[in-house]
Design goal:
7-stranded parallel sheet, binds iron/sulfur cluster, TIM Barrel, 2 domains, 12% strand, alpha/beta
């Protein structure tokens, strides 16, 4: 809610534009929130805000000190402090692309009502990436200026073209021996085509795996159709199996576990409790209450599955209130949007979640690569990644990739590592959670020497690879 500035300044009183430095303001409950470019913020009473806006804050008073330290006083504005803070918040800008998404096929054995990948039928083998294209893509990816590179396999369903996935991983590892980047692999899969052999390979190469769970089985299966079988059963079976395999490998289950994502449709809205309970029941430590996005299949199904955003906000509030209640009862479950925004606001850092960052991540942090050049990007609008994601004429940033990019950006921005840190605290009050997110941030700072982030799973994590840290913490958010 905006504030009637003049009513707070006082009837007849003048705004003193020479006293405050640039600020924004908004009412939060009984207080007025002020913020500035650097990300500093203060909650002031109406009386304090009025004095601030009138310039009626004597030097040496507690309010003056508070405002000065947060760089809200024009005459005492500390430019160097502001620069340092902005530089820290936007440090990811200097790294170059870290996340490289290989769309190894558009084929998929499931049909989801909201498919943002615009999947193709299983017969559409022409949408498969070839080994040669994958190699050229890796050659290009490893030329990134980022010291850390995450290669993420997406589709369609990447397990459909698993031979190319295997070949790509082997080639990237071999190629990187002389380059020495910190290399990480992730895969976004519906898991229904998983088998022990594939899993063995993925575990051997520490490929982090993400899937989707749309809530309870009946809802999930209705939205994510798998001919002849329950897609929910398939996903949950392999979530359990993979987590078990991690444990067998002696890996910390807090750091190593399959992440699952939710896509909120109209049918999801009244089922906020079932959704949360499903995630808790699966042993998930985090839940990302993501609204549906209007691209891919949603262009056709939107009338059936979309909803007014006000209804989503109601759903979000009910679900998060319930999660907080569970936290108080000792259940560890974290809502990711809340964690991202609270980290931005309270920890003074940008987690670099690609959908919610400024400037936009496209090309500067995330590059999708697909082989499908079925139509010219010019016929489908922009393709901002094309100039840098085209290692060869056969590996083209096709319109399909561009259309997918909002989803893929999400995908790679999330993993359990940092989430794990946050979720370790989820059983405590929200304020405690915030503190621990800040601790995580501090840990990452200390990782400048090259040590792993304490909260990182398999993402090696130097300060230079901070993008990864945030990316890792937010990885694999793409809906499947
Ligand atoms: S969302 Fe994923 S699993 Fe579902 S149809 Fe699309 S590509 Fe397949």
């Amino acid at each position: 809610m905006t504030v009637d500035l003049r009513s707070l300044v006082g009837i007849g009183a003048k705004l003193d534009t020479s006293f405050p430095a640039f600020f924004r303001h908004r009412r939060i409950g009984e207080k007025v929130l002020i913020t500035n470019y650097e990300g500093n913020w203060l909650l002031l009473s109406d009386e304090e805000f009025g004095r601030f806006a009138r310039g009626d804050v004597p030097t040496g008073t507690p309010l003056h000190t508070l405002l000065r330290d947060a760089n809200f006083i024009r005459a005492e504005y500390d430019v160097q402090k502001a620069i340092t803070r902005v530089r820290a918040r936007k440090s990811f800008l200097h790294l170059g692309p870290n996340l490289h998404i290989l769309v190894v096929t558009l084929r998929c054995n499931e049909t989801c009502v909201y498919c943002h990948a615009s999947r193709a039928n299983m017969e559409a083998v022409h949408t498969d990436m070839s080994k040669e294209t994958a190699e050229r893509s890796i050659d290009f990816i490893l030329r990134s200026t980022s010291p850390s590179v995450t290669i993420e396999f997406q589709g369609g369903e990447p397990l459909v073209n698993f031979e190319v996935v295997k070949h790509t991983i082997a080639y990237a590892i071999q190629k990187n021996e002389s380059i020495g980047k910190q290399l990480e692999f992730t895969m976004v899969s519906n898991l229904s085509l998983m088998d022990e052999e594939k899993l063995g390979f993925l575990l051997q190469h520490k490929v982090q795996i993400c899937t989707s769970i749309d809530g309870p089985e009946h809802l999930h299966d209705k939205q994510r159709k798998l001919p002849g079988f329950s897609s929910h059963k398939a996903a949950t079976k392999w979530i359990a199996r993979i987590n078990e395999a991690y444990a067998e490998m002696g890996l910390d289950p807090t750091l190593y576990h399959v992440e699952a994502l939710l896509t909120t449709t109209k049918e999801t809205l009244p089922r906020w409790k079932e959704v949360v309970d499903t995630y808790v029941g699966l042993g998930c430590k985090a839940l990302f209450l993501r609204p549906i996005d209007p691209f891919g299949f949603v262009e056709k199904t939107g009338a059936r599955i979309e909803y007014p955003r006000s209804e989503y906000m109601e759903f979000y509030q009910q679900a998060t209130d319930y999660m907080l209640e569970l936290n108080k009862q000792g259940v560890q479950i974290l809502e990711r949007y809340a964690a991202i925004f609270l980290t931005k606001i309270l920890a003074g850092e940008d987690p670099n979640f690609l959908d919610i960052r400024s400037p936009a991540a496209r090309a500067s942090a995330s590059l999708p690569i697909t082989t499908t050049a079925r139509s010219s990007p010019a016929t489908r609008g922009e393709c901002s990644t094309r100039p840098v994601t085209t290692p060869s004429s056969s590996a083209t940033c096709a319109p399909a990739a561009t259309a997918r990019s909002p989803a893929t950006r999400r995908c790679a921005r999330w993993s359990s590592p940092r989430n794990a840190t946050a979720s370790r605290t989820a059983s405590t009050a929200p304020t405690t959670r915030i503190v621990v997110w800040r601790q995580c941030t501090a840990t990452r700072r200390s990782a400048a020497s090259g040590a792993r982030c304490a909260s990182a799973r398999s993402a090696p994590y130097t300060r230079a690879s901070r993008t990864i840290c945030s990316a890792s913490s937010l990885r694999r958010t793409r809906r499947r």
